[in-house]
Amino acid sequence: MWLLVGLGNPGKEYESTRHNAGWMALDFLAREIGADWKKDKKFNAEIADGVFGDTKIMMVKPQSFMNLSGEVAQPIAAYYKIEPDHIIVIHDDMDFDLGDVRMQFDRTAAGHNGVQNLIDRLSTKAFHRIRIGIGPKKIEARDFVLAKFSKDELKTMAESISTVLDAVDTIVHAE
C-alpha cells in the first residue's frame, strides 16, 4: 500500500489557494478512481482509500495546518505500517513556474515548512515528493502562497494535475 499525503490548509478561506495545490491534486485523483473522502477524527485527517491501477493507495489531507502535516501523516504511516519509501507527498512549490511538476526522492525540504515537519516527524527525508509549481513568486512568500489562483491560473493547474497523476503512476509502479 502507498500513502499519498496532499499538503494544504483546512477551511473555506484556503480553498483554491496556491498552498492547497497538493489537496487539489488528491481531489482530482480521488474523482478519477472513484474514492470518497471521509473525516477521520482519530487521525485529524480526511482520508480516501482506493486502487490506482492495480495498487492500493490511501490518500490523506491533514486537517492540521500546512506546517504541521507531519503531525498527521506520521501516526497514519506508523499505524498502517507504511514505510517512508511508500509515502508520496504532493505539495506546492513557489520556486517553479505555475504548473511545472517535478518528482524527487530523499531530498531536503528546500525551505518548505510543511515538508520539513514531515521530515522531522518521520525522522527521514527518504520519501517521495511531487512538487507542483505555483510561481514565480511575485509578492512576499506568505501572502503569495495564501492567495487564490486566478481563473487562468486554475486552468493551468487543472492541466498540470494530469502530469501529477502520471508522476504518481511512475512512482507506484516503478517496482
Q: Which keywords apply here?
A:
175 residues; alpha/beta; Rossmann fold; seven-stranded mixed beta sheet; globular
Would you kindly provide a written description of the structure presented here, covering whatever features stand out?
By secondary structure, the chain is α/β, with parallel strands linked by helices. It has one domain (2-172): Rossmann fold (3-Layer(aba) Sandwich), CATH 3.40.50.1470. The chain is globular and about 40 Å long. The longest helix is centred in the last third of the chain and has 22 residues, at 151-172. The relative contact order is 0.21. Helix 1 crosses helix 5 (151-172) and helix 2 runs parallel beside helix 3. A hairpin with a 2-residue loop joins strand 3 (45-52) and strand 4 (55-62). Helices cover 35% and strands 27% of the residues. The chain contains 5 helices and 7 strands. It has a 7-stranded mixed beta sheet with strand order 2-3-4-1-5-7-6.
